[in-house]
From TrEMBL:
Entry similarity comment: Belongs to the cation transport ATPase (P-type) (TC 3.A.3) family. Type IV subfamily.
Organism of derivation: Salix udensis
Protein name (record): Phospholipid-transporting ATPase
PROSITE patterns: ATPASE_E1_E2 (PS00154)
Catalytic activity: ATP + H2O + phospholipidSide 1 = ADP + phosphate + phospholipidSide 2
Entry's EC annotation: 7.6.2.1
Length: 1172
């Protein structure tokens, strides 16, 4: 390996002086973001002068700037031969496997070779020369956001994206002006500084954890070639151009080009679960030069975060390091979501802002009137001096004319009443969400033992939305079902080797499979199971049985559970796949090992809906085996052969689908020598095409996948997960509409619908299967007429008191993906939603991933109801991200859904405790906490407002300025946070027993505009009591203003804490500690503040506390302020109790009497609300 050999790879850092090199086309489809995920051009050495190129040759790898629609890599196959069955010697030419959804089918006409100045030159095993002329980034990874220098400015910049913070900053700045100074300059900054500090500490801790993670990654060791020997080197010190050796199960330190592997054919198997969530094994091919062709693309590219599997060792050259690797370039999070409560809270904050402006306007206008009436007395009024008389010549002092005084008074009012907008609410919400997430994660009832996975809360800002869900959109396979199969034993080469999974076999069919190919029937059976064993991308692995060391297990790693199921089924009938390389497979057929050369593989894609493999068989024949969905396979079957078999197979397919089984059709045909040569030439040309490679490969596959002989059909049982029927029934009882969106056949989906209790025999089914827009329109119109007729019959039955099964039967809508093509994004959307909103169940079959997202978007557009999507696979990601709440299932199809979700869990049934229990609690607590924070701050502001009216509108404050600042931070903040985390209005058992209780969140009973105004009305009353009771009690006394200010402070703190205590449902020692502790802490703080001689109000609290009237006033304030609320609450709960109150009382009575109390809940029947 010459150190002078170089790779020229796209890079914006390459200078313009790069020399021109010859170029050859090559296929690429990697998805790398630095011009490597697209078709590329490779410049290689002149094949006519190999010796000359050894010293100065450079290999240019270039890319056009196009958009790739997929990142699934193609598979390369090199060095294949068909042995005795070959039509020509192909061992000297590489054979490539087809691409699965590799590139975009449509390319821009401007797609051309990029210039050399955009290329990257890499010298093999010469990092110094590679980095001599080019500024390549190092391999040190930095995912942390901040540094010691940038932390303060950047963190402040990010925090001030919240408008409320800017508001309080302006308030603090205004208070620094002498003309507007109401509080002390330090005291005015304290609330904002505290909130910023807490958030900064949280951000610093999170960033410190990222830095520690970066340090661990950067200090990991890799084997790097140094002085012709592999030596360990830290990841952060690796440079572009260095040769790296990877051992089995190692993670790659950087993006590499594969040079050599332990496999004789140059193939390496990798797992990309850390990169894209895929748990299946993928193949990578070594980079080689053959003549004038240099195929350099994804089949030979390794990416950081990829693990080497089933390969002893692999050697590659580093081409992208650090922040330029695919993992770093693709490092982006899920879309940002905001909860409904937080969005709705903004409107209430606007109302409070209007309140604030109104109060300030009243004070400023009143001050103007007061000044105009007393403009001749300002010189002599003792408490409002126009001039200073401290000097011989009087000077103007704090007076700029009554016009300017109005403006100053307005601005000073904003400063005094600033806490009307609760700044502490934001940080309280964050802390409450963290606490709620902790208890959700620790919930043992959402722990999945099978997968050893706990519930994960990946988005803290939408916890409360879990309590308001109206629509659940669910995938079927892997979400409602298990998405796995079990198979039985086999033996191989005298060793006790059996498949890792077992399956029941039919004895008669097993005997027939052992009879070879003597009869026509036996031949079909042989070919059928051979197709199951060969037509796949399964990688066989031999693993040890932990229970029996003498037993070896054949473990099949595949792209999907379906492929694994079919491979295990073939093994159970004696066709065990035991070896796979890039050019051949070995199948143990009833103890006899047979080698089949793999000439090409056309992988499954969503357009063809089938896959095929071209095999060179031991009997010197070449065959193509095809499997796929019946809708695509029956169109390529030769109908002139075995018409009876085709018709019988159709009947079996329908029967299997009706039982809820997943079906595939298997076919094959022999290829003649001319057919094979034509296919091979076309396949090679398509595989190396630069433009439109996928379309060309699809065309080649279509030419060979025709005139097939049908071999049979397979049916895979995808069992329901544990507890799915009960979960769906609970969700529907809770008023949640469950829609199932699946890519399976209609019959299969309907069968699963019945077994999961989504569909019942009492339901009236409306099925829409249309192939045109006109047909869809007519079907929708007819369905709407039918649904209205059923609704009218139901209303008539209710009015007359009669009972008719037909009149009361719910409606289920079943629609396929073809119909949705003509409905979505058209004028028919409104009709579809109108129809679906009247149905109890909606079942969508044969839908594509984007159609799933389109259906969710339709519901979000037409209604304001909250939506939740749940799925387990990559095809569910768009649906999960589109919904208000996305839930990922840790299933058999990788972790794409989990990585894109807001919450993740192991089983569908966990959705019941998540929504009905935690969702209900989170919403009730958060809704109450927001209203309580509005009340807590508003009552304090109103007390200051009433005092301003009695102080000549001068905005002098009776309450100590430090107490004003500490009110929302220390005096009253902790109790509401603790209660919002721990209080439970109804027990878990009752919430699960009565799912109808969940309807409180759907109806926004805990937080709505009516509750807001009632809270504000109660706030005004309580503030009047707090202010005027001491005023009347001490009207003729000599108590000074600071003393009565301390009385108001203590009264408000005691009042708001007792107000909170009245609403606590389940008391515990923590609630007692924080509530009574806050009151005691307030007394202590007030006494400490009044102990400083330099502060206003020195010793005031001690003067007033010594009088009995002080304690009488406190008691009178509490009784008079809370009595109306107590009376209204008792009357409301007695005469018009809601479902939650009834369930709570039933629970209390049941626990006291030791008996079970039955509660009848009304069903939740509500039309969808319009989109606001």
């Amino acid at each position: 390996m010459a150190a002078e050999r170089a790779l020229l790879i796209p890079s914006p850092r390459t200078p313009k002086s790069t020399q021109d090199l010859p170029s050859f086309p090559v296929s690429s489809n990697s998805g790398v973001k630095v011009n490597l995920d697209n078709p590329i051009l490779v410049s290689g050495m002149d094949s006519q002068n190999p010796t000359e190129s050894s010293s100065s040759n450079e290999i240019s790898l270039k890319s056009a700037s196009i958009r790739s629609l997929s990142s699934n890599p193609s598979r390369a196959s090199r060095g294949n031969s068909i042995g005795a069955g070959s039509f020509r010697d192909l061992r000297s030419k590489p054979v490539r496997l087809g691409s699965r959804r590799g590139d975009s089918e449509v390319f821009s006409t401007s797609q051309k070779e990029i210039s050399d100045e955009d290329a990257r030159l890499v010298y093999l095993n010469d990092p110094a020369k590679s980095n001599e002329r080019f500024e390549f980034t190092g391999n040190s990874v930095h995912t942390a956001k901040y540094s010691l220098i940038s932390f303060i400015p950047r963190n402040l910049f990010e925090q001030f994206h919240r408008v409320a913070y800017i508001y309080f900053l302006i308030i603090a700045v205004l208070n620094q002006l002498p003309q507007l100074a109401v509080f002390g300059r330090t005291a005015s900054i304290l609330p904002l500084a505290f909130v910023l500090l807490v958030t900064a500490v949280k951000d610093a801790y999170e960033d410190w954890r990222r830095q520690m993670s970066d340090r661990v990654e950067n200090n990991r060791l890799a084997w790097v070639l140094v002085n012709d020997q592999f030596q360990q080197k830290k990841w952060k010190d690796i440079q572009v151009g260095e040769i790296i050796k990877i051992q089995a199960n190692d993670t790659l330190p950087c993006d590499m080009v594969l040079l050599s592997t332990s496999d004789s054919t140059g193939v390496a198997y990798v797992q990309t679960i850390n990169l894209d969530g895929e748990s299946n094994l993928k193949t990578r091919q070594t980079w080689t030069l053959m003549g004038s062709d240099c195929h350099l693309g994804p089949p030979i590219l390794f990416f950081v975060a990829v693990s080497s599997k089933n390969t002893s060792w692999a050697i590659g050259v580093a081409v992208y390091c650090g922040r330029e690797t695919k993992a770093m370039l693709n490092n982006s999070g899920s879309p940002s979501k905001r909860s409904w409560l937080e969005s709705r809270m903004n409107s209430e904050i606007i109302v409070l802002s209007v309140f604030l402006i109104a109060l300030c306007t009243v004070v400023s206008i009143s001050a103007a009137v007061w000044l105009r009436r007393r403009r001749g007395e300002l010189d002599t009024i003792p408490f409002y001096r126009r001039k200073s008389f401290n000097e011989d010549e009087p000077k103007n002092y704090n007076y700029s004319g009554w016009g300017a005084e109005i403006v100053f008074t307005f601005l000073m009012s904003i400063i005094v009443f600033q806490i009307m907008i609760p700044i502490s609410l934001y940080i309280s919400m964050e802390l409450v969400r963290v606490g709620q997430a902790y208890f959700m994660v620790r919930d043992t009832q959402m722990y999945d033992e099978a997968s050893n996975s706990r519930f994960q809360c990946r988005a803290l800002n939408i916890n409360e939305d879990l309590g308001q869900i109206k629509y659940v959109f669910s995938d079927k396979t892997g979400t409602l079902t298990e998405n796995k199969m079990e198979f039985q034993c086999a033996s191989w080469m005298g060793k006790v080797v059996r498949p890792k999974m077992t399956v029941k076999v039919d004895p008669q069919l097993l005997e027939l499979s052992k009879s070879g190919r003597d009869t026509e029937e036996a031949k079909h059976v042989h070919d059928f199971f051979l197709a199951l064993a060969a037509c796949n991308t399964i990688v066989p692995l031999i693993v040890e049985d932990k229970s029996d060391p003498a037993m070896k297990l054949m473990d099949y790693q595949g792209e999907s559970p379906d492929e694994q199921a079919l491979a295990y089924a073939a093994a159970a009938y004696g066709f065990m796949l035991v070896e796979r390389t890039s050019g051949h497979i070995v199948i143990d057929i009833h103890g006899e090992r047979q080698r089949f050369n793999v000439f090409g593989l056309h992988e499954f894609d969503s357009d063809r809906k089938r896959m095929s493999v071209i095999l060179g068989c031991p009997d010197s024949t070449v065959r193509v085996f095809v499997k796929g969905a019946d809708s695509s396979m029956l169109s390529v079957i030769d109908r002139s052969l075995n018409k009876n078999v085709i018709q019988t197979t159709k009947g079996h397919l329908h029967a299997y689908s009706s039982l809820g089984l997943r079906t595939l059709v298997i076919g094959m045909r022999d290829l003649s020598k001319p057919e094979f040569e034509d296919w091979h030439f076309s396949f090679e040309a398509a595989s190396t095409a630069v433009v439109g490679r996928v379309a060309l490969l699809r065309k080649v596959a279509g030419n060979v996948e025709k005139n097939l002989t049908i071999l049979g059909a397979s049916a895979i049982e995808d069992k329901l997960q544990k507890g799915v029927p009960e979960a769906i029934e609970s969700l529907r009882t809770a008023g949640i509409k469950v829609w199932v969106l699946t890519g399976d056949k209609q019959e299969t989906a309907i069968s699963i619908g019945y077994s999961s209790k989504l569909l019942t025999n009492k339901m009236t089914q409306i099925i829409i299967n249309s192939n045109s827009r006109q047909s869809c329109r007519k079907c929708l119109e007819d369905a709407l007429v039918m649904s209205k007729k059923l609704e009218t019959m139901s209303e008539t039955s209710d009015n007359t008191g009669t009972s008719s099964e037909a009149a009361r039967s719910p409606v289920a809508l079943i629609i396929d993906g073809t119909s949705l093509v003509y409905i979505l994004d058209s004028e028919l959307e409104a009709q579809l939603f109108q129809l679906a909103s009247t149905c109890s169940v909606v079942l969508c079959c044969r839908v594509a991933p984007l159609q799933k997202a389109g259906i969710v978007a339709l519901v979000k557009k037409k209604t304001s109801d909250m939506t939740l999507s749940i799925g387990d696979g990559a095809n569910d990601v768009s649906m999960i991200q589109m919904a208000d709440v996305g839930v990922g299932i840790s299933g058999q199809e990788g972790r794409q859904a989990v990585m894109a979700s807001d919450f993740s869990m192991g089983q569908f049934r966990f959705l019941v405790p998540l929504l009905l229990v935690h969702g209900h609690w989170n919403y009730q607590r958060m809704g109450y906490m927001i209203l309580y924070n509005f009340y807590r701050n508003a009552i304090f502001v109103f007390v200051l407002f009433w005092y301003a009216l009695f102080a000549c509108f001068t905005l002098t404050t009776a309450i100590n300025e430090w107490s004003s600042m500490l009110y929302s931070i220390i005096y009253t903040s902790l109790p509401t946070i603790v209660v919002a985390i721990l209080d439970k209005d109804v027990s878990r058992n009752n919430l699960l027993k009565y799912p109808q209780l969940y309807g409180a969140g759907q109806r926004q009973e805990a937080y709505n505009r009516k509750l807001f105004w009632l809270t504000m009305l109660d706030t005004v009353w309580q503030s009047l009591v707090v202010f005027f009771v001491p005023i009347f009690a001490y009207w003729a006394s000599t108590i000074d203003v600071p003393s009565i200010g301390d009385l108001w402070t203590l009264a408000v703190v005691i009042l708001v804490n007792l107000h909170l205590a009245m609403d606590i449902i389940r008391w515990n020692w923590i609630f007692h500690a924080v509530i009574w502790g806050s009151i005691v802490a307030t007394f202590i703080c007030v006494m400490i503040l009044d102990s400083f001689p330099m502060l206003a109000g020195y010793w005031a609290i001690f003067n007033i506390m010594g009088q009995g009237s002080f304690w009488v006033c406190l008691l009178g304030i509490i009784i008079a302020a809370l009595l109306p609320r107590f009376v209204v609450k008792v009357m409301y709960q007695h005469f018009t109790p809601d479902d939650i109150q009834i369930a709570r009382e039933a629970e209390t009575l049941g626990s006291l009497r030791g008996i079970a109390v039955e509660v009848e809940m009304n069903p939740i029947m509500e039309p969808p609300s319009p989109r606001r």
